């Protein structure tokens, strides 16, 4: 959908902070599926944690991203997604080798512009829900930065500026 905008990129690059700013400005925002799954899994048996079973985690993220899109279908104006279906499909491709992103993109496309947070070591922090290294985050960023253009998206790398300036950049780019 043309009003569904993905904020993707490097883990720890400021996506969630940007989404919070956009939400504070009155836009609809959708929290990253991965964070929600990790919280759920940590409260349970933890079988689908990305550092335990990345394929199971990615499959859950795909299901959640599809449900998020359905839930947002009635939104008017821009809806910003902290990651989304393509990110989850790329993660599943990495593990299984099965081409998933193209299939999911054909069924559930997003706005043609995708905003990517670049690796930003100065703000990167691990936590209980983000247990991978900065090197792992950069590798993930590189996979996503390659996948989105192959699917026809225009990747717009966000500048390393304040969150207010980043939000202004996104909204200006969207017109």
What does this 3D model show about the protein?
By secondary structure, the protein is of the alpha/beta class. It has one domain: 3-Layer(aba) Sandwich (Rossmann fold), CATH 3.40.50.300. Helices cover 50% and strands 13% of the residues. The chain has 7 helices and 5 strands; from the N terminus they run βαβααβααβαβα. It has helices at residues 15-24, 33-43, 54-72, 85-96, 101-107, 134-150, 163-174; strands at residues 4-9, 28-30, 79-82, 113-117, 154-157. It has a 5-stranded parallel β-sheet with strand order 2-3-1-4-5, sandwiched between helices. Helix 6 (134-150) links the parallel strand 4 (113-117) and strand 5. The chain is globular and about 40 Å long. It starts with a strand and ends with a helix. The mean pLDDT is 88. InterPro entries: NadR/Ttd14_AAA_dom, P-loop_NTPase. Pfam families: AAA_28. Residues 5-166 form the NadR/Ttd14 AAA domain. This is Putative ATPase.
Strand-pairing-aware structural class:
alpha/beta
Major pleated sheet: 5 strands, parallel
- The amount of helix comes to 40-55%
Outline:
globular
Residue share in β-strands: 5-15%
CATH architecture: 3-Layer(aba) Sandwich
> What's the tally of helices?
7
Spatial extent as radius of gyration: 15 Å
Return the CATH class: Alpha Beta
Give the N-terminus to C-terminus distance in angstroms: 16 Å
**What is the CATH superfamily classification?**
P-loop containing nucleotide triphosphate hydrolases
Give the tally of β-strands: 5
Element-by-element helix/strand order: EHEHHEHHEHEH
| Sequence stretches where pLDDT stays below 50 over 5 or more residues | none
Number of domains: 1
How is the largest sheet built, in terms of strand order?
2-3-1-4-5
Protein name: Putative ATPase
Pfam family, one: AAA_28
Organism: Aliirhizobium cellulosilyticum
InterPro entries: NadR/Ttd14_AAA_dom, P-loop_NTPase
């Amino acid at each position: 959908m043309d009003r569904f905008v993905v904020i993707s990129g490097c883990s720890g690059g400021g996506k969630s902070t940007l989404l919070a700013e956009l939400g504070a400005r009155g836009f609809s925002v959708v929290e990253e599926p991965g964070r929600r799954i990790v919280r759920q899994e940590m409260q349970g048996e933890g079988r689908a944690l990305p550092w335990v079973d990345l394929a199971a985690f990615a499959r859950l993220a795909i299901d959640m991203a599809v449900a998020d899109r359905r839930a947002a279908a009635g939104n008017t104006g821009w809806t910003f997604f902290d990651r989304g279906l393509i990110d989850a499909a790329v993660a599943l491709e990495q593990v299984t080798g099965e081409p998933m992103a193209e299939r999911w993109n054909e069924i559930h496309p997003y706005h043609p512009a995708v905003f990517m947070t670049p690796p930003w070591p100065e703000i990167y922090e691990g936590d209980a829900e983000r247990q991978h290294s900065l090197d792992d985050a950069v590798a993930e960023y590189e996979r996503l930065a390659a996948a989105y253009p192959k699917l026809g998206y225009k990747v717009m790398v966000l500048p390393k500026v304040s969150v207010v300036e980043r939000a202004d950049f996104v909204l200006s780019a969207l017109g």
